[in-house]
Amino acid sequence: MLAESCSQVFTIVCDNCQVKDITVQGQGQLIGLELVCVSGEEEVPALGELCDVTAEHYVRFPTANPHSVQQKTLTIRNNTHLELTFHWQIMQPNLQTLLPGEIPDPAHIQYHLANDDVFYVSPASGLLTPLQDHEFLLTYQPQQLMDYHRVCHLVVRDVPELPREDEPLDTAPKVNDVIVMEIEVKGLTQAYQVLLEPYSIHIPGEVFIGTTIRRSFKMWNNSRSRIAFHWERSGDCHIMEVEPPAGEIEMNECFDLELVLTGGRPGAVISRLLCHVQHHHQPVTLVIQVTFKGPQVSVTVPSLDLGLMQLGDQTQATMVLTNTTHLEAFWSLGPEKAERTDSLESGKAERTDSLESGKAERTDSLESGKAERTYSHHTQITVQPCKGVLPPLASCSVDILFRPLFCQHFDTVLELAVENGQGCHLSVQADVHSPQVCLLTCDLVFSEIYVGIPARGSITLINQTLLPAHYTWTMLQGQQASLCSASFTPSSGTLGPNAKKDVTVAFTAYTDMELSAVAALCEVTGMKDPLVLRFFSTAQRLNVSYSLPRDCPGLEAEDPAVSLVLDFGDNVLLKRPITKQLVMTNHTAIPAPFTLEAEYFTGHAPSPPAGQSQQRGLHVRKPLHPVQAKKVEDKAQEGFVSGLLAHGKGAAFFVHPDCGILGAFETQTIDITSFTNMWGEYRDQLICKVGDLQPKLIPIQMTVMGCPLYFQMIGPQPDRQNQGPIIRFGTHVSGGDTVSRSLRLNNTSPYDIRMDWESYNVDQEDRKLLDVVVAYGDAFPLKDVDGNEVVGGGAMSNDTPPTWDRSHTPSTEGTSSSLKSKSDLEEEKEEEGSVHSASPQKRLFSVFIRPHEGNASDYPYCITPQQINVPAGGSSTIHVSFTPLTLSELTSNAACVSFALGFMSLDSKVSSCIPGKVQRAQGQDLEPLRLDLQASVRPAVLSVQMEEEEECLEFCAVASDLIQGEPHNEMVQRKCSVTRTFQLKNSTEMPLSFRLSTQPPFSVLQPRGCAETAGCSSPSHSLPPGENQLLLLQPRHNKQVKVAFHSSLSMLAYLRQSAEEVPPNVSLVTNESGERKLRFRQTLSVHYNNNSLQTVPLCAHLSLPTVSLSCDSLDFGTCYVGQTLVKEVHLSNRGGSSSYWRVIIDSGEEEEGSEFRVTPDCGVLKPLEYPVSSSTQPLQISFTASKEREFQATAVVKGFLGEPPLSLHVQGRGSFDQRFVSLLTDI
């Protein structure tokens, strides 16, 4: 049937010959079904999602749980006028991967029915009424945890097929079922989400058995559908259940549950209670943790100590059992099930650590007691009652009876058992003993014992039982008992149970023989045999050793006794105390007195004057300031050292302590301190006497370096004794006068010292390394006042040294310390005689090699006298002079660096050598006293400091300042001066004398300490002259110098002179802008007193006016006769000075000079630095024609300050033609 209208005419022929035509009309329609909506909206597949290739519509269900139901409503509209019979088919999807725009292949499309009922539509079949909407319910009910994908086919039944063209119309059409709509459906499945809050229940503390406790918790349903649950119940030993045990929970809701617990027996329980959820693959678990406890019975005492017992006695003790819970307790008390045997093997060690002398009595016969140890402990202990029932919180008494069977340390454990509860254990102890005492050692050996000195030892008495034992020590016995004695502390006493007693034994030997046949007895009450203590000893006599400290560098490890030397060093600094230590060790317990003293260089502490200590005690002084206390302490130390060195030997060894008692086993450290006031190589011996031993002689050696002389100006230099001061003569002018300095030398030694001075100049470019000095005889022989060598001067030194007084050295003041008594002189004579007899023969030639530091020279430094004798304890004076060098013109300055060496010699034989005791070097063999000399020689030069760091001192003057008054009326000429200042600084270290001079137009004013302001002054004001005046400028000082520049109108005459007539120091300068200046150059001369000259450039500029016109010609053209025309020109000043000007009109004809006029005809133009209105003047030029003809004139501008004249050419013509009448005047 076609989907169009059609008609057919049927003719009916009746029997009555009537014919009737009947027309049948009909309209064909196609099936038209429309999916209106799917539960409000229709979803679209996601991008890239695999879908059915033939489905027109897509429906997606939200995620669901297994066995849950989800539904969507489908609204389908029948757009035809026919009733349609339908039914639904659920098919498998046809899935093909297609590109965009690709048509699926019909050959691969297959139709397979779904084999499950996850998706179904209701109604599943029926009749679709025409032109109405029909609702269908699409249900999704998953069965398993998987994703479902189906296609719902809407099939219309009995749909006729369209006839073929060649088929007659009266043929009945074929009918078939047709799929009119395909809807693709998808659904996801998710497991049930059930949550317990909390997921575990932990009950703190302990819960009594038989007591029911409840705990609340929540069960959340986070699934997408309602759930049904059921809790299991545990009741094997403990009852665990949940109330309510079953129920249903809606989606996203919780259910309040309660856990019920009842304990059956004590102990910790960790269990899991299961909850089964319908259609859920695994149960939900609730973890439960709880601890149950039963009845508890406690004992009043944790252990039972029955104490010390003797064999055959029995004892009984009572204790209380208490039920501390609210439950009834069934208890029993008795030995443990696994009763531990009393291991006597553990006590075997205690019974066998005895002395061999008492072995038979202290060993328990293990064979005889073996049968006794087989008895169990319960045969010796009885419990009454041994079991019972305790009501809640009740108590009862239990008696324990102990009957020992043998000597032992009884130790057992009774177990208190409680049915379904917690009991405890009770320790029971008892000691069964008999008295037994022994010595820890039976021999007492004194390895270190000394004759007559008691030696102490210690022995130990041990009570091996818990019973008290009384002991007593008796007298010594043996063959050698008369050669010694012994005492015991304590001599008697009582030993407590298992106690140890230390007994001190004082043993004294009266001989150095070996003692071995001596013993002491100790009787113990209750023991058959006494204890025996034997003595062994060999006494020693006094033994003392000497050594140096371990850190001493002179001690050799191989044989300390051989290398025992008190070496103070080879480079001991003069006057610096050096302390060495000697260690005396008493290796015995015998105390002994000792004394120590140096053999020759003795040093005894000076004793204070009689009564001085008493006077100090009478005066009570206030506490001294720390500085004052330090000074007092230093003064006391200085007096102490002076007293030690008062014997005049140059050195002293002070021993502290020098006497005393060396105690038993004592090690005393003796300090030997060396004090010196003279150089030399010293040798001596330390005499050590201890008790009755032979004296010990210990060698002493010391080499002292340094200088006992010092300069008064710097005082003593403890660290640099051979280094004198640095004499700085400062900076002097080249070729100046000689400068001299006086230096005072002090001698702190006990001997006269002769000084020989030599001066050396230091040359920085000198490459010499060594000096070789060859001397014949004495390197520094004795000389007279004139500097000549004294023949036989050495013989004079063999005589007795004279008694020096103040007259020997003119510069010596108060040197009375060098005076000596007769006894001292006699002693020196004896020493000199011995020295002279033993002194070595003098050397004929001497060669000395020393580092080269300078060249010997007496210029520019000189020391006088070159040989001087500094008395012992006195002083002398030397003079150092400096003569400045004369520098050449090429040398800017010169540093004079030199040094002087003072070589020391000793004229007395006693002071130079004492055989075996001291040897002193002198002359070239001894380090000299050094005196550094420094000075600087510079030329006379002053530093010129100007205000603006200019190369020359510049002056600026203005020519207009030379005219005073109104212009062109009362102008008065005057002179003007401009002053400038600069600083002359003496940067040298010497004063400079000089004079200042210069040439006109400059002059030097009186120098002052401060600058004056520059300005002009009238001729009546006179400036103080400063030339040819001698000035003195101290080092590092400056002086202000004022210089004036004098200007006058006469200087303008240079402008009219030719270049040959102008002086060379005067010139006319014109800059780019046309400004003119007169420049004057000159110099300021500085004349020094050493005839040297220094110049300072001077430069002055006199500014001149420079005028100009705006134009050089002016044409008025043709003008009406009698009418005045005015034009304007500008007169400008570009110079640095004002211009006094005047305008003169020159027409060439006297009678026609009135046609042109200039207004104004004179004035003043300010310099260009002023405002433009002041430096520019407008000039009005007027023209009045008197006749009908041409007029010409020249206006000349002239100045009074050397300005070149300016000319302005003007012209005009007169006419009576009225056309030239001008209504406005030209400007």
Automatic annotation (TrEMBL):
Read off the Pfam families from this record.
Answer: HYDIN_VesB_CFA65-like_Ig, Ig_DLEC1_6th
Keyword terms, alphabetized:
Cell projection, Cilium, Cytoplasm
Q: Does the keyword Transmembrane helix apply?
A: no
Where does the protein end up?
A: Cell projection, Cilium; Cytoplasm
Give positions of region: Disordered. Answer: 338-373, 787-839
Cellular component (GO) terms are: cilium; cytoplasm
- One GO biological process term: negative regulation of cell population proliferation
Q: Which InterPro entries match?
A: DLEC1, HYDIN_VesB_CFA65-like_Ig, Ig-like_fold
Which GO-annotated molecular functions does the record name? tubulin binding
Task: Give residue spans, biased composition: Low complexity.
Answer: 811-820
> What protein name does the entry list?
DLEC1 cilia and flagella associated protein
